[in-house]
Write a structure and sequence with these properties.
Elements (H helix, E strand, L loop, with lengths): L9 H11 L7 H26 L31
């Protein structure tokens, strides 16, 4: 698996990510809001992974199905939460 590092085209990654996770939004306003959150999360991932490649972090990060959510919106338990 390749580690996501910069420079990264956020619009291109957004389109790929939405396709991979079958994401669609009810309005353009919601899509723009979600893109802003995604872009912020993407920038944080890239910055972290650059530190990882420099040996300053012990793990890498990647985009997942929660990349359009704020930390407050991610379900409790994150990836470990069950679907009901």
């Amino acid at each position: 698996m390749s580690v996501l590092v910069g420079p990264v085209d956020a619009q291109e990654k957004w389109a790929e990510w939405k396709s991979t996770h079958s994401k669609a939004y009810e309005s353009e306003e919601e899509e723009q809001k979600r893109f802003g959150i995604f872009e912020s999360n993407l920038q944080e991932i890239v910055a972290h992974n650059e530190k990882f490649q420099a040996g300053d972090e012990t793990f890498s990060k990647a985009l997942n199905r929660f990349a359009d959510l704020t930390s407050d919106e991610v379900p409790k338990g994150g990836l470990m939460s069950r679907k009901h």
